[in-house]
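Bumping my old thread because nobody answered last time. Still need a sequence for this structure:
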């Protein structure tokens, strides 16, 4: 009977891992399908942005809400319902006749993805005990790392061979399998909220606040030349921050809060939050820029890019279980600190390797160190975040870690993008006046390149029309160097972010957290 129970637990982990993989994969997998979608819907990349943004926004906004509902009414119930919703929405995505329907169903799909992601760690923690729990959380961390980095490879292959609907249809058969396995093998957790009221005001305020802040960052990302004080940006950011302050005020006074604000008084928990944010804003945000470098500038296809990025993602496959085993013997705090520092070194190596002739040969050492950091920290962070957490709070802790990881990714993409734009524009301003061409033509071309940005600037500089110009070669050289300056600055900034995350972990996290002591302390 014990052997069957043990087998059932690992099958349950497979079901939960499959749900997490699908939910996180759909954050990035759409990127490589956008060119095909643009042709299919006969529209522009600008209009297609909401296929990405609808998922990102709703996913981040509903993570905490789904966590709280799971804690109150049973995590298996909410996880299972989220998975079913995700599968149905995936099928609708693939069949979507119009872009509007696709945008709406992507938002619905994100609710399912958030429910699966936010409750997975808590379900694993409640389905496993002792050393097995560390190993199981380590494996789940591996799945998180792999799913986040494998989007270009999986998406590229599916789009190339089966068309863009395949990136959504593939979720249906695997989702059905995961639903069946979850029904049979995942053990339900107690409903901790039987006598609690739903904190409806808290849920509404958190949703509005997060939506406003993240949407404000998305607007800024899409319009890098708009000032932070531009009302179209500042009104969203300031409004969102005010609402979140109101959320904290409400949570401190309501009888059954959505989020126990006291958790943020624990230095150890704050340390894990800082690491989660650093992971998102450093490693995950940088992946978007690395993909653009490999596809737009080096010239690899989506599949070729994905294969080469296995240098990052492949480490998560086996380092997660290793980290889970080691976490029961050694300090998770210091393993996280040293792993983050290894990642920082990887970014600095990447920055040093950027050049007009850069290829994968020069990039792979830095990518490997990035992969090692991601492969180690993710599973260790899951386990460390759960330490000292009462059973009724595990879902919310899981949700908060994921919120800060996702929020960090959004902030990182915007922040790194602004740094890249500034370096790119500065180089163009400094070197284009040296070209032998009329000043008026030079200024017009410069304005076009700056407005297009680093990614599209390469396409313009190497277009058929530009190639016929007598100054094409020196102009293209300047554009490439401008892009390289931006990419090097992005890599250095990501390295600094990861190192700061390591310092935060070293100062705030504890080697061991006594959950019994914590429970007594909270009751007082």
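Sorry it took so long. Here it is:
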């Amino acid at each position: 009977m014990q052997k069957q129970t043990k087998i059932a637990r690992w099958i349950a982990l497979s079901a939960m891992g499959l749900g997490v993989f699908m939910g996180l994969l759909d954050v990035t997998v759409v990127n490589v399908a956008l060119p095909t979608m643009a042709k299919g819907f006969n529209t522009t990349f600008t209009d297609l942005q909401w296929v990405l943004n609808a998922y990102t926004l709703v996913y981040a906004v509903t993570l905490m809400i789904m966590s709280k509902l799971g804690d109150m009414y049973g995590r298996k119930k909410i996880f299972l319902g989220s998975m079913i919703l995700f599968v149905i929405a995936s099928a609708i995505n693939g069949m979507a006749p119009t872009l509007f329907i696709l945008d709406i169903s992507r938002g619905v799909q994100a609710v399912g993805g958030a429910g699966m992601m936010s409750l997975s760690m808590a379900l694993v923690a409640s389905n496993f005990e002792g050393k097995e729990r560390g190993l199981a959380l380590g494996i789940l961390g591996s799945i998180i790392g792999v799913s986040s980095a494998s989007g270009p490879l999986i998406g590229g292959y599916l789009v190339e061979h089966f068309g863009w609907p395949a990136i959504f249809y593939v979720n249906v058969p695997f989702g059905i399998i995961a639903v069946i396995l979850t029904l049979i093998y995942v053990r339900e957790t107690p409903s901790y909220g039987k006598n609690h009221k739903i904190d409806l005001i808290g849920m509404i305020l958190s949703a509005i606040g997060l939506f406003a802040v993240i949407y404000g960052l998305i607007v800024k990302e899409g319009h890098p030349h708009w000032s932070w004080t531009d009302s179209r940006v500042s009104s969203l950011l300031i409004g969102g921050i005010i609402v979140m302050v109101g959320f904290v005020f409400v949570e401190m006074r309501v009888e059954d809060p959505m989020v126990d604000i006291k958790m943020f008084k624990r230095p150890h928990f704050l340390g894990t939050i800082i690491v989660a944010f650093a992971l998102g804003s450093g490693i995950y945000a940088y992946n978007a820029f690395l993909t653009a470098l490999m596809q737009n500038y080096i010239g690899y296809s989506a599949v070729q890019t994905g294969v080469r990025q296995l240098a990052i993602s492949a480490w998560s496959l086996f380092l997660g279980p290793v980290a889970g085993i080691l976490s029961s013997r050694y300090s998770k705090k210091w393993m996280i600190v040293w792993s983050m520092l290894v990642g920082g070194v990887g970014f600095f190596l990447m920055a040093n390797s950027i050049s007009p002739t850069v290829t994968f040969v020069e990039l792979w050492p830095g990518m490997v160190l990035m992969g090692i950091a991601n492969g180690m920290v993710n599973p260790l962070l899951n386990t460390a975040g759960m330490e000292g957490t009462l059973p009724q709070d595990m879902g919310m802790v899981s949700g908060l870690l994921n919120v800060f990881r996702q929020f960090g990714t959004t902030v990182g993409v915007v922040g790194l993008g602004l740094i890249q734009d500034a370096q790119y524009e500065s180089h163009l301003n400094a070197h284009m006046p040296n070209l032998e061409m009329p000043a008026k033509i030079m200024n017009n071309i410069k304005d076009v390149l700056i407005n297009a940005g680093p990614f599209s600037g390469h396409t313009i500089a190497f277009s058929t029309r530009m190639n016929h110009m007598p100054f094409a070669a020196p102009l293209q050289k300047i554009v490439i160097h401008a892009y390289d300056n931006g990419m090097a600055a992005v890599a250095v900034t990501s390295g600094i972010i990861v190192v700061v995350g390591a310092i935060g972990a070293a100062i705030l996290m504890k080697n061991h957290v006594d959950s019994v002591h914590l429970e007594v302390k909270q009751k007082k």
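The first helix runs from residue 2 to 28. Let me know if any region looks off to you.
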